[in-house]
Amino acid sequence: MVYVKDGTPIIGVNALHHPNRQRFTMAHEIGHLLLHRTEITKEIHVDKEFPMLMRDSVSSAGVNEMEIEANLFASELLMPVEFLAKSLDAEPFDIDDEGAVRALAKEYKVSASAMRFRLGNLFA
Predict the structure, then answer these.
(1) Does 85 have pLDDT greater than 80?
(2) Overall number of domains in the chain
């Protein structure tokens, strides 16, 4: 989640999530701050009336434009196309090869699903 208190953004992550998931969450929320700051300061007020943007059934469905944009921002921040191109330049890469996807995901400290999504968007 991200909320803004007295003009200062605060990002919260689930400490029980894998560190890679936490990194993606932080990058996603930074995306909201940079791309949607005006909108997120108008969102639902919870606990002491802090404006918050929280993950819900709509955000997890992948149809909300702001969520899509924040996910793309996080993907670009954590897996820059220029770096991926260098990583993939050494040898042929098969996106259907789970081992290869996991190895590349490990290199970038993201989940295999995040890496698969990024590669699919870049090279589809």
Answers:
(1) yes
(2) 2
